[in-house]
Amino acid sequence: MSSTEGSAATVARRYLEMFGELGVTRIFGLPGVHNLAFWRDWSPGMPEIVGVRHEQTTVYAADGLARATGGLGAALVTTGPGAANAVGAFGEAAACGTPVVLVASEIPSPLARPGTVRGALHESRDQAGLFEPLAKAVYRPRTAAAAVEALREAAATALAWPRGPVYVDVPTDVLSQPAELPPAPPAPRRAQAGAADVARLARLLADRERVVIWAGGGVLQSGAEPQLARLAERLDAPVITTYAARGVLGDHPCAVGLPPHEPEVAELVAGADLMLAVGTGFDGMMTRNWRMPMPPELAVINCSAADLDKNYRPDLAVLGDAAGVLSAVLDRVPARDAGTGRSLRAVREAVWSRLAGDPRSADAVAFLRSVEAAITDDTVVVCDMAVPGYWYGGYGRVGGARRLQYPVGWGTLGFALPASLGPAAAGRQVLTVCGDGGFLFAAGELATMAQYRMPVTVLVVDDSAYGMLRYDQEAAGDPIRGVELNSPRWGALGDAFGIEVREADGVGAELEKALRDSLASGLPGLVITRTALQPPRTTSPRWFE
């Protein structure tokens, strides 16, 4: 007889049921002695629990799935060191505003004594306190009824705008106690802008001759891509996208498609009369630590009051949902003659011609072209904080919204490989772009890829170093210390996990073919090229060259 026959379902079972009701189809978990109830009480029809090899991956993969789908990510870890291992990945989700619910177990209630660490297995003074500086909310339920209510609230909080990760911990004995499902909460309400603010914004946009749009991740969260495209067309306005929003306009003629760090793009931004910023907080990496040349006037749309003016003081701030505000102003702005597409083509041609002709970036341009030729518009590209990731994250072609993941929010090296499991588990074809250093942060997840036969191709650009840090030392005139690495025998590593390894010479045709073949297989694969790329202008040592 199962633990739930003849009695109410347990808290663990209710959690699995509630995640399913929320549209979650894959949960990423790692079992431990305190959270085994989730595996015990799982049954067909519930979200699959994808078993990973390190607790950091539970959250990285949940983050990757949520970024790819726009839905909720879910992760399960055990008490103490299991929870602590997930903190770094949780911080990345927090920095990028990803809706993830992390559920951790806690020590058995009878062993806990408030204010005292008695030395129970995996006990800590305040496990949830590890997450409080990062979490949108933290829940510490200690009864079965409170536990099921906490998950309802946690999911609603994570998905409410602005989104972010939420932490819940539940004592191991409570996970096995019976519980009834609480009523479903109301759907989250979107912030509605005031009519006067919308009217002022429409007048400002109509009155300014040269408008540039700065689109951030809030456009994705709101689902405002169609409204953004229509407004850009009516205003004939170039659109700069932050890393979080790359791909929202695809190949639309108003999409600049290049970062504002490049001089030609910076000139385009500074030459406008007005910037309309939608769903962005203007982070330091996009703005060169807020030293980017700006137009004389700034209007901001954001659903978060804290993000309206925390880095730049706007001339007009509109608190509201991006899709709603853009829809409201569309018909109030007269259409203009189209000319931006032609001027942007000239800007793009100038940038790419200069980069291809510069010996510092010519190999990187060839690298980008090889990768772009090998993938499709539906491929999800997950980049690491590594030189090849900097290049693709800022410059590579992105086929559409939610097709690029890049951890520039918190800058977590080692993100790409474990995060790739998320979109792959959701059935997406994934290309992981990383260096040899960051790859080894989570190389054990090759076992997860192999076990679940995930469609992930991991591209490793092996320069036998932490390449960005080596560049930093060279640029500073410092000794090269602590950054040079021994590379594994890649073929033997692949064999150990049953994963095919393809090695390419350089960044040209061989690399393109190796990537095509690996992606076409639909199976996990490793593609290795041994080369050293110079970092792009999006990296801080090159911001002001």
The quaternary state of the protein chains shown equals single chain
Principal-axis shape? globular
Provide the gyration radius in Å: 24 Å
Global structural class? alpha/beta
* Largest sheet properties: 6 strands, parallel
Gap from first CA to last CA:
70 Å
* Beta-strand segment tally: 17
Indicate the proportion of strand residues: 15-25%
Q: Tell me the helix content.
A: 25-40%
Number of helices: 22
Strand order of the largest sheet: 2-1-3-4-6-5
Low-confidence stretches: 1-6
Features:
single chain, 545 residues, alpha/beta, 6-stranded parallel beta sheet, 17 strands, 38% helix, disordered N terminus
Would you mind describing this structure in some detail?
This protein has helices spanning 11-21, 37-40, 55-69, 81-85, 87-96, 144-159, 172-175, 195-207, 217-222, 225-235, 263-270, 284-287, 322-330, 340-357, 362-374, 387-395, 416-425, 436-439, 445-451, 467-476, 490-497, 509-521; strands spanning 26-29, 48-51, 73-77, 100-106, 137-139, 166-171, 211-215, 239-241, 274-278, 297-302, 316-319, 380-383, 404-405, 430-435, 456-462, 500-504, 525-530. It is α/β, with parallel strands linked by helices and 545 residues long. The strands form 3 sheets. A 6-stranded parallel beta sheet has the order 2-1-3-4-6-5, with helices on both faces. It has a 6-stranded parallel beta sheet with strand order 13-12-14-15-17-16, with helices on both faces. Helix 22 (509-521) links the parallel strand 16 (500-504) and strand 17. The longest helix has 18 residues, at 340-357. The chain is globular.
